[in-house]
């Protein structure tokens, strides 16, 4: 890792720490306070991903990320609320703040928050091409196996017809997860070309995004299984998101072991791993 990459990663580590603290506070709150904390958490996640893209890849990557994921997220959510395509019929309750075309303004930010670490995890694990797009899409869509059951349980949105549903998760239709996967494929297919060549190259400064993805995975499994009373979504989300989180953790752990044996260096090259 170069000195410039170290400096670029520092704000991301700081924001990640604040985000983790906010998420730890989620099970400790309730009612209006929990809804407000949810909005704050999403805004922190959005700021973390966009600022990381800007600091490590430049303006084109950050602007491309926002255009594809925030703009695309708002468009697909507006379509979903109005027509039920591609997720199924649903509606937001209004607890998550101001809305535009029936969609809370914070919702498109959530797409950006997790799309960037899912994309970078796939960049770390695969070569350019269809396999990378598929893995990144699965990495993003897998997160919704945690997100939707949790948010529906809080009453932030609801489904008009949740059948058929996954075993143990009766309030969210399977069509929602399929819609997420379909749209995630589209997002990831567009993200690379729009964000530019730099977005498709792994860098040592991406470590905070890998940590964000792995924390989201482990923290979600723990929260759903222990604190939120949602053991089935802990299992489903843990199973699907592990397709990306497992290899990513193994690869980062192997790199950490190698770095520890050699001693710390500012010139760690992830592209050689």
Task: Characterize the structure shown.
- With 273 residues, this protein is mainly alpha-helical.
- Helices cover 71% and strands 4% of the residues.
- It has eight helices and four strands; from the N terminus they run αααβββααβααα.
- The chain has a two-stranded antiparallel ribbon. It has a two-stranded antiparallel ribbon with strand order 2-3.
- The longest helix is centred in the C-terminal third of the chain and has 32 residues, at 231-262.
- The two termini are 13 Å apart.
- The model has no long low-confidence stretch (mean pLDDT 94).
**Shape label:** globular
Average pLDDT taken over every residue: 94
Strand order across the biggest sheet? 1-4
Counted by DSSP, the helix tally is 8
The fraction of residues in strands falls at under 5%
Distance N to C terminus: 13 Å
Rg, Å, rounded: 18 Å
Helix-strand makeup class: mainly alpha
Order of helices and strands: HHHEEEHHEHHH
Stretches with pLDDT under 50, minimum 5 residues:
none
Please give the share of residues in helix: over 70%
How many beta-strand runs?
A: 4
Q: Main beta sheet, described?
A: 2 strands, antiparallel
Briefly, what is this?
With 273 residues, this protein is mainly α. The chain has helices spanning 3-24, 31-57, 59-83, 106-125, 130-154, 174-195, 207-227, 231-262, and strands at residues 90-92, 99-100, 103-104, 157-159. The longest helix is centred in the last third of the chain and has 32 residues, at 231-262.
What's the layout of helices and strands?
Elements (H helix, E strand, L loop, with lengths): L2 H22 L6 H27 L1 H25 L6 E3 L6 E2 L2 E2 L1 H20 L4 H25 L2 E3 L14 H22 L11 H21 L3 H32 L11
Antiparallel strand pairs: 1-4, 2-3
